[in-house]
Specification:
single chain, 318 residues, alpha+beta, seven-stranded mixed β-sheet, globular, binds zinc ion
């Protein structure tokens, strides 16, 4: 195994992941890709620990004149909703955990693209555990929730679907699935749907709260056209990009005021919140694709679907 070692020193300040040392390695776990989906490899970490140093980003988003507010339908399957979840030393119900994870992804998208994720409503559903692969599990959720982009769900507008599942599709070592460009590959219709499988410590089976915010950001980036950088043959594979599957050796991560000791090889997807120049340009050029600009629609009616123009409170049907 050839090993190149590089050291990257980044400023450590609030809101940015810090990789104290980054190594690249030639041997990789390659996830076979499925047409119409993006599949993210699961994290493999042998041990980790967290030291609380404070920090809370909830509510820290800034809504400016041209900020796009993307309304999220948050769904959890029965495995997800029957457990409690750890984040920064706290134990949370599944929905509070998922909201926190979306809030961190929102923080990043707000800073970079003036896109804010707003969890508009939450639901649970029964996942079909007979599906052995995660694309089918995402399809299952989309069908059962009858989701499309945009739609009214529980009486409110939603633009994107973020499913948290703890079903056994984790067995195939996938952590996330998203419809490419927010399009349902079966119907060709707008359907910005993705699925997150919370990552766990292999030895303790405890969930790794610091991972799933990156998965949310990564999968939502696919809705805006950002591609996976799967191996060396992909441009920007070696860049500092959350869409890259390049394995990096991480000693310590500094995220949102917390230090995480890792000392293991992990996909760059979990270690950075940055984008390469191509992904940045792609997402930025599509930043208005979902959601609305202030003020929000209060009590939407079904006819707004056909009359929407995209601005000033009227949902954009695209
Ligand atoms: Zn991906
Ligand atoms: Zn990229």
């Amino acid at each position: 195994m050839k090993e190149k070692v590089i050291f990257i020193f980044l400023m450590t300040f609030f809101g940015f992941a810090h990789v104290s040392s980054v190594h690249t390695v030639d041997s990789l776990t390659i996830i076979p890709q499925v047409e119409g989906y993006h599949l993210t490899p699961a994290l493999k970490v042998r041990e980790q620990s967290r030291i609380y140093v404070g920090g809370d980003i909830t509510g820290a988003v800034s809504i400016q004149a041209n900020t796009k507010i993307v309304r999220v339908l948050l769904a959890g399957d029965e495995e997800m909703s029957s457990e409690s979840w750890g984040l920064w030393g706290q134990t949370l119900t599944w929905d509070n955990y998922a909201k926190e994870q979306v809030a961190y992804a929102s923080w990043e998208l707000d800073n970079k693209f003036d896109v804010v994720l707003h969890v508009a409503t939450v639901t649970t559903y029964q996942s079909d555990n007979s599906y052995g692969i995660s694309p089918a599990l995402l399809d299952d959720a989309v069908r059962k929730l009858n989701f499309r982009t945009p739609m009214i769900f529980n009486g409110v507008w939603v633009d994107i679907l973020v499913v948290f599942s703890d079903s056994r599709y984790a067995d195939i070592e996938l952590a996330g699935v998203a419809y490419d460009n927010g399009i349902d590959p079966h119907t060709g219709n707008p359907c910005a749907a993705c699925m997150i499988k919370p990552q766990r410590d292999d030895s303790t089976n405890m969930n790794l709260g610091w991972t799933d915010m990156n998965l949310v950001q990564h999968e939502i980036s696919h809705f805006y056209g950002a591609p996976d950088h799967i191996d060396e043959s992909y441009p920007h594979y070696n860049d500092d990009c959350i869409m890259s599957y390049r394995y990096v050796y991480v000693t310590t991560l500094f995220k949102y005021g917390y230090y995480i000791t890792i000392n293991d090889w992990i996909p760059l997807t979990y270690a950075t919140n940055n984008y390469c120049s191509d992904c940045y340009e792609t997402i930025n050029s599509n930043r208005t694709k979902y959601g609305y600009v202030n003020p929000p629609p209060l009590f939407p009616s079904a006819n707004e679907i056909s009359t929407g123009g995209g601005n000033n409170g009227t949902p954009k049907p695209w």
